[in-house]
Amino acid sequence: MFCNQCEQAANGTGCSTVAVCGKPAVVSDLFDLLLWQTKGISYLVNEARKADKKDPEIDRFIIEALFLTVTNVNFDEDVVATWIGKAEAIMDKAAALAGIDRNGDVPAAVKWSAKGKTEAQYIVEAQIHPITTFHANEDIQSLMQLLTYGLKGLAAYAEHAAVLGATDESIFAFIPEAFAALINPATTLEQLVGLNMKCGEVNITCMAILNAAHISHYGTPEPTSVPTGTVAGPAIVVSGHDLYMFDRLLDQADAAGVNVYTHGEMNQQKEFDGQPAAFIFNTNCIQEPKASYAKQVFTTSVVGWPGCQHVDGYDFSTVIAKAKELGGFTAKEGKPLMTGFGHDAVLSHAETVVGAVKSGAIKHFFLVGGCDGAKPGRNYYTDLVEAAPKDSMILTLACGKFRFNHLQEELGNIGGIPRLLDVGQCNDAFSAVKIAMALAEAFECGVNDLPLSIILSWYEQKAVVVLLSLLHLGIKGIRVGPTLPAFITPNILNFLVENFDIKPTGNSGRGDLEEILGVA
Ligand code: SF4
Fold first, then answer.
1. For 304-321, how does the pLDDT look when each residue is reduced to its tens digit (9 = 90+)?
2. Domain 341-517 carries which CATH code?
3. Could you name the CATH architecture of 10-217?
4. What would the pLDDT profile of 91-101 be if each residue is shown by its tens digit?
5. Is the pLDDT score of 519 beyond 70?
6. Dihedral sign, CA of 175, 181, 183, 189?
7. How far is the CA of 212 from the centre of ligand 1 (A)?
8. Ligand 1 contact, 21 CB (< 6 A)
9. Which of 68, 82, 151, 295 has its Cβ near the most Cβ atoms within 10 Å?
10. What's the CA-to-centroid distance between 72 and ligand 1, angstroms?
11. How would CATH label the architecture of 229-326?
């Protein structure tokens, strides 16, 4: 195995014998094979689209297969092997759609067939297609991996949107186009730079349709106080980003008298151990369940962990039964947290915010967002938020916020608006971008001219595509941490520094804060 797609990559280079995330080596190899097949399918779909031929089943398969390979989604060898079998059937369908003979003059990824092969043979043949062999030139390889991981993140968001019935042709056309380029040996470094930027652009469309789908199904986010304690009674803890699944579960749990909770995602082994609740993961990020609570863990959709019960579809009666069997929590009061500061909510206060900037009450904005992770070094973000001066406003989103959103009260308000505004999930990066653009418009300047610093924490491939979206928008000076991606070569990093002024996060949040604000 070799995998370097996430921030945890062993020794800052990649996991080669043991995966830091717990992914078995055979699963890693099978993912490489599934990715290889997805490229073959993409080549055929791209050719078919040139003749205006499309198939929604194939389009959906591509995004689901990619989502399956995202970090902390699926660890089950048998499930991945099943997907390889499905990909073979989809490849045939795509060849028929494109009118292309799989044995003709086509890329090797189209020719490779899973027909008649066993899971053991898949594992042997998977060794031929590791992610390290995209290209002999290390900078082209680096850009190819950046694009591949960006496409995985894009596919994950596209799947969230598709679950809610929201799709966009630009997404389904771009993913195959990009993969077709990735298996074309003639693709140049310059073309790969362009494709990475386009990936970021298409992802903005994707986050926009996802945002619209969330609003049309569940309403416009508005500032809401959310309790963080427990109430007495049976409990289900949900992890993930699939709001449709969440909504269906809420209906069923409500009728059964079971309470539903969310959590901060990356502290599972500590938070779940010994809790009398059922846990269900609907998207990333599942971590290896400890034996003490593994029997309480359920997965659904593309998520899987060997030995954990999987729920197909939306009948959650087994999860509800487990929650009742476990008895649930006793009542314990928790600190309420404010959330729901989407772009509509924040921009409804635009005049106040603009006025506060003009009067000097707000001197700086920080966008501190992104993933949480399990490695040390993530207290950087808490440190920075704690030390941010009182005349600054902090926007946050995604699960990294669980490191500091308990500080809301002590951070206080500016002009009646909380200084720490929780914009939402990682896909709500779209909302943060809209807020930044609206501020730039109000001040008649560019986003890069605003007193705004963006500090991102990355962990997996959704963060990669969000970063590509910010780069596509021309946003400069972004700090990325806690470590830089293992797949970025020194030359590509130089390119990003020269063109986008990207900076790695420093040793401490306070140190970087001083640098940002020009304090000696
Ligand atoms: Fe390592 Fe991350 Fe890949 Fe898991 S997903 S094998 S932790 S690089």
1. 999 999 999 999 999 999
2. 3.40.50.2030
3. Up-down Bundle (1.20)
4. 999 999 999 99
5. no
6. negative
7. 32
8. yes
9. 151
10. 8
11. 3-Layer(aba) Sandwich (3.40)
